[in-house]
Amino acid sequence: MGQFKQKTASSEADRFEALSRISIALMSERDEASLLHLIAQTAVDLTGATYAAFTLRPTNEQGEITAPSEGSLFYLAAIVGVTEEENEYFRHLRLGGEGLLGPIFRHGVAVRIGNIPRLMHESTTEYGVRRNEARAAAFEFAHGQVPADGLRTIGMPHGHPTMCSFLGVPLLNRDQVVLGGLLLGHPEPEQFTENDERLLVGMAAQAAVALENTRLYQATYMQAQEVNAVFQEIADGVTLVDQNSCIVRENARARHMRERLLKDGHTQALEEMLYAPAARALAGQPANTLSVQVPDDHQEKREYVVRATPLHFPEFTRRSAPLGNLSQKQRTKLFPQAVVVWHDVTEAQRLMLEQRIHAETEAQRSLLQTILDELPSSVYLVRGKDARLVLANQAAKTVWGAEWPRDKPMQEFLDENQISIFMDDGRPLPFAQLATLRAVQKRETIYQHQEVIHYADGTTLPVLVNAIALAEGKLTINHHASPADRSGVSEDEIAAIVVHQDVSALKEAERLKDDFIGIAAHELRTPLAILRGAAQMLVVQTLRGNGSTLEAWQMESLQDIDQSTMRLVELTEDLLDVTRLHAGRLELHLEPSDMVALTRRVLKRIQASTQHHQLQMTSLTDYLIANADQRRIEQVLANIINNAIKYSPAGGLIEIEITQDAAQQVGYIAIKDHGIGIPLQQQAHIFGRFVRADNARNISGTGLGLYLCRELIERHEGRIWFESRENQGSTFHIALPLLVDLDR
Question: Which EC class, in a word (predicted)?
Answer without folding.
Answer: transferase
